[in-house]
Amino acid sequence: MTTISLSQKLLLKLQRRLLDFLDLAIKKPDYIFMFCFSRIHFVRYFIQFILKEKTLLKYQGNSVFEDIEVNYIVDTLKKDGIYLGIKLPENILKEIIDCSKKITYFGNANLQFSFKLIDKQKEEKKQGKEFITGYNFDIAALCPAVKKLENDPKLWSIATKYFEKKPVNVISKIWWTFPQEKEVEERAKGFFNFHYDLEDYWCLKFMFYLTNVDIYSGPHVFVKSSHKRKKLNHQFSLLRETDDNDIISYYGSENVLTICEQAGVGFVEDPFGFHKGTIPIQRDRLLLEVKFTLHNYETIP
């Protein structure tokens, strides 16, 4: 396996994304400010303090999640950064899976590589590369069941109480992760290394497995409590990635949670905590994400 130093990773990332960041610095300076400073704990909590609303909205209507307790989930999120056990009703799961078979995906999240599942191998051959992932970024517009999840009053309540402010629902996306026979290229490795996201000062992602996921089919991995106790060099580093040994030595192996569950089972996490995807060995994995943030920056590089 090819190894690469942190300084080489940083240089490659800067080379790849410099023009994007320069463009954003002109068009969306508020996003660039957030991206630079939201990695610091003090800044995150200061922003939450100044935006905090005294009276939080109460959301009306029936939730598809009858059995979940909002306050308990929020308390668990504040402590661990993740809560497991939000299960999709069978009819909602079936509708989303049915929809997933018909829609168009973008290979490796590249809008130039569009394909239907049935044509995946044909498109890979045409483009001369294997797709590690296949994304659809407009699933709510194509699937009423996902739109129902976006509007679910309990999901909104969880996000509102966690942020202590009314959130915005930014995007819902669905993606496949496919088994790989070759080593993935360097620019794709970040997703499969421990990292944290900087999509806003506060963010929550509700994620649902749409296929059965065991240790061989790409389970998601999250480090409990890493959303609130990062080392200073993790907060001030220009890189948000770190290796397994660094994670285990600081947080302890007991806090590294590998999530293997049946189709329909979901979880909610604060993506400021360290997490990573894993590459399936035997079976494709399909996952749905419904995301809430404080702001809608419209474009995330």
Give the class-level CATH name. Mainly Beta
Strand content: 15-25%
Total helices: the number is 12
Oligomer: single chain
Q: Strand order within the widest sheet?
A: 1-11-7-13-5-4-2-3
Which fold name fills CATH's third level, the topology? Jelly Rolls
Order of helices and strands: HHHHEHEEHEHHHEHEEEHEHEEEE
Write the layout of secondary structure elements.
Layout: H1 6-27, H2 29-37, H3 41-51, H4 70-80, E1 82-87, H5 90-100, E2 104-107, E3 114-116, H6 120-127, E4 133-136, H7 139-142, H8 144-150, H9 153-163, E5 168-177, H10 186-189, E6 194-195, E7 203-209, E8 220-223, H11 232-236, E9 241-242, H12 244-251, E10 256-259, E11 265-269, E12 275-276, E13 285-293
Antiparallel strand pairs: 1-11, 2-3, 2-4, 4-5, 5-13, 6-9, 7-11, 7-13, 8-10, 8-12
What does this structure look like?
The protein is α+β, with helices and mostly antiparallel strands and 301 residues long. The protein has one domain (6-293): Jelly Rolls. It is 37% helix and 21% strand. The protein has twelve helices and 13 strands. It has helices spanning 6-27, 29-37, 41-51, 70-80, 90-100, 120-127, 139-142, 144-150, 153-163, 186-189, 232-236, 244-251; strands at 82-87, 104-107, 114-116, 133-136, 168-177, 194-195, 203-209, 220-223, 241-242, 256-259, 265-269, 275-276, 285-293. The strands form three sheets. It has an eight-stranded antiparallel beta sheet. A hairpin with a 6-residue loop joins strand 2 (104-107) and strand 3 (114-116). Helix 1 packs antiparallel against helix 2 and helix 4 (70-80) packs across helix 9. The protein is globular.
